[in-house]
Specification:
Number of helices: 2
Structural class: mainly beta
Strand content: 35-45%
Number of strands: 33
Shape: globular
Length: 426
């Protein structure tokens, strides 16, 4: 009875005070960027491991001018590698009007983006001159696509609560700076969970798996109401046809009192050193904020594993909170360890969480063995398969279940023959 050798696990927060986190894996190097708290520059760090990003040195790629265009808020930089060049897509405001946000890109030449020679920024025209942000790009079957958020043209003087702050659009590109087609509306914030505080769809990230193309996005105000949504299209569909895309009616990642994690969103995707899928996102460790949440710097960059349900769709579970990034205990039979359903408290999740007022005790967990497809039917069920490894001695582990904060349990493979003779931590 043996287990896979454990390595140093990353710890959340992975990178503090970096909202809108973006990780690009190129070769054997992970590159990390995100919104700098002063909103005045683009920064980048790199490491050989995800864990190494936490204390990796950071370099400044570009700094905003002191006046004029691009002299305002600098938000949500993303690093992409297209052909043999690097590109940063980002948002910049005007020095006199920091929230007059528009979209830009810079091009880098060199083997390593941290030392590349970078061009001057070029503005990307989204089709009309309005608030525009959070662009990402992806390639599919030889075409380059651009996805972004933008305020639609609306009647002047509309009251708050009626104004749409941002929809999301997609277009094909003729080159990394230029749209080749008219914008196609992907999603508008029409559902209740997308309209808390602001009417927002933003922060797109693209994932291609299981013959499908997924686009995650974030919605509502940037406090604990912020949450992630999901669009899905078949890989063979016309991606510029709005009917090709299906919006999941409920959010797919929300705040959780159980894990003390609030406002998860503006995500990206990567894989770990073993090739397992990893969700990258920001969240706070507390619910209540003094003042404008946009200027609270503690939306930290975080990571966690995610999985796929029996229909091939991503199952993100709950945001896992602070501490070691958890793993699944997977047997050679393909079955996985989980906390039994009847020993999980029904903790509040979503926009109506109650923060520190919630004191319902979490029961002592009982362990069981389940199928991944069964576990991924609910957000809590998915998270019930995640454990932090406290100690390991061969096939005996001391585990801290994510859904049972404050509890640790002993796991001995001999007690769970349904897992088979070996297990893997992933």
């Amino acid at each position: 009875m043996t287990t896979a050798t454990t390595t140093a696990r990353p710890v959340n927060p992975l990178v503090v005070e970096r909202a809108d986190p973006w990780i690009l894996k190129s070769g054997d190097t992970y590159f990390f960027t995100g919104s700098f708290p002063a909103f005045d520059r683009i920064v980048l760090r790199g490491a050989d491991t995800l864990a190494g990003l936490s204390d990796a040195p950071e370099v400044t790629i570009w700094t905003r001018p002191s006046e004029g265009e691009m002299g305002g808020n600098i938000w949500a930089p993303e690093l992409h590698q297209i052909a043999d060049k690097w590109y940063f897509y980002f948002t910049a405001g005007h020095a006199d009007k920091p929230f007059r946000i528009r979209m830009y890109a810079i091009e880098g030449v060199g083997a390593d983006p941290r030392t590349a020679v970078w061009s001057e920024p070029r503005r990307i025209d989204g089709g009309w001159d309005e608030f525009a942000l959070d662009a990402t790009v992806f390639e599919h079957r030889g075409d380059l696509f651009y996805v972004w958020a933008q305020r639609p043209v609306q009647e002047p003087g509309l009251p708050d609560g009626v104004v749409i702050n941002s929809d999301m659009y997609i277009a094909r590109m003729s080159d990394p700076f230029t749209l080749a087609t008219e914008p196609t509306l992907l999603t508008r914030p029409t559902l209740a969970w997308e309209n808390v505080g602001y009417r927002v769809n933003e922060g797109a990230a693209v994932l291609k798996r299981n013959d499908k193309i997924f686009i995650t996005f974030s919605a509502s105000a940037t406090d604990y109401n912020y949450a992630m949504g999901l669009l899905t299209a078949d890989q063979d569909a016309d991606l510029l046809d709005p009917t090709s895309w299906h919006k999941t009616p409920e959010p797919v990642l929300v705040s959780s009192d159980l894990t003390r994690s609030y406002g998860p969103g503006h995500n990206s995707f990567t894989t770990d050193e073993q090739g397992n899928d990893v969700l990258v996102y920001h969240a706070r460790s507390y619910r209540d904020i003094i003042g404008n949440p946009l200027f609270d710097p503690n939306r930290h960059g975080r990571i966690q594993p995610f999985f796929f349900d029996e229909a091939g769709n991503p199952a993100f579970g709950l945001p896992v909170g602070d501490g070691q990034v958890p793993v699944q205990v997977v047997g050679e039979t393909g079955k996985i360890l989980a906390v039994s359903e009847d020993s999980i408290v029904s903790a509040p999740v979503g926009g109506n969480v109650v923060g520190e007022a919630w004191q319902e005790p979490v029961p002592v967990p009982e362990l069981t063995v389940t199928e991944l497809a069964s576990a991924t039917r609910t957000q809590v069920g998915t998270t019930a398969t995640l454990f932090r490894v406290i100690t390991q001695d061969g096939a005996v582990l001391r585990l801290a279940p994510v859904v049972s904060p404050g509890h640790e349990v002993d796991f001995d493979l001999a007690r769970f023959p349904a897992l088979g003779g070996t297990i893997n931590l992933q």
